[in-house]
Amino acid sequence: MSSMPLLKALAKAGIGPRRQLADAIRQGRVEVNGKVVEDFGYPLNVETDHVSIDKRPVDLKPGQAVYLLLNKPKGVLSTTSDERGRRTVLDILPENYRRLRLYPVGRLDKESTGLLLLTNDGELTHRLTHPSFQHEKEYLVSTNARLPASEKRRLEQGLELEDGITHRAIVKEVQAKPFNYSITIHEGRKRQVRRMFECLGHRILALKRVRMGNIQLGDLGEGEIRELSAQEVQALLTDVTEHAKRA
């Protein structure tokens, strides 16, 4: 019998982010063989059981996993839909990818640009975005003023934000117009880099993510996409597996 926990099976099916699926289970919106199930670990037979969310059947046998790298343009939302009709990352994908139930791995705020991964691999997405998985993220920053050495040290050692002290960061001066700094962090708090600089009284004029773990944005143009190579996917999977062993 091909059995696995309900939440894991839904995540692997690639129908949405793991957090949203967990909410659906918790709220009693998931049914297995016609009965509401609110247990994340309910043993699901993916071969024979019938699952629905909000009365809509779920296909538990996803197609081939897809991993895309997008250079997100400014003004585009890092989400799959928007109630106000604003442009999302799915809107700028070629038609053949829009049907694959892809969703972003983490987010970039509307005004930021750069590297964003999209995939239908729900389990990998969960592990890459979980707070315990300290995946490096590197950003290029354009600020309204040069950082004194004392402020650079504060960024590197950790700042007190409203949601807690940030972890150590790596900050370097760069000459890549219009950017003048590179900052590497391991966390993924909402608007974290912007808030770190705002805490020091500096305004960010432009923010671009250029690396996530071993994945580099490279010379991919704004709005362009490419599929990750087999080597890049394997590197992501290896990083996730090694971290899980250490956790």
Number of domains: 3
CATH architecture of the largest domain: 2-Layer Sandwich
Given the helix and strand composition, which structural class is it? Answer: alpha+beta
Mean pLDDT: 88
Number of beta-strand segments: 17
The CATH class of the largest domain: Alpha Beta
Characterize the quaternary organization of these chains: single chain
Strand content: 25-35%
Helical segment tally? 7
What is the CATH H-level superfamily of the largest domain?
Pseudouridine synthase I, catalytic domain, N-terminal subdomain
In this structure, how is the largest beta sheet organized? 9 strands, mixed
CATH topology grouping of the largest domain = Alpha-Beta Plaits
Topology (SSEs and partners):
Blueprint: E1 3-5, H1 6-12, H2 18-26, E2 30-32, E3 35-36, E4 43-45, E5 51-53, E6 56-57, E7 67-72, H3 95-98, E8 103-105, E9 113-119, H4 122-129, E10 137-143, H5 149-157, E11 160-161, E12 164-165, E13 170-176, E14 179-185, H6 192-199, E15 204-212, E16 215-216, E17 225-227, H7 230-246
Q: How would you portray this structure in words?
A:
With 247 residues, this protein is an alpha+beta fold. Helix content is 25%, strand content 29%. It has helices at 6-12, 18-26, 95-98, 122-129, 149-157, 192-199, 230-246, and strands at residues 3-5, 30-32, 35-36, 43-45, 51-53, 56-57, 67-72, 103-105, 113-119, 137-143, 160-161, 164-165, 170-176, 179-185, 204-212, 215-216, 225-227. The strands form four sheets. Strands 7, 8, 9, 10, 13, 14, 15, 16 and 17 form a nine-stranded mixed beta sheet that branches. Helix 1 (6-12) packs across helix 2. The two termini are 30 Å apart.
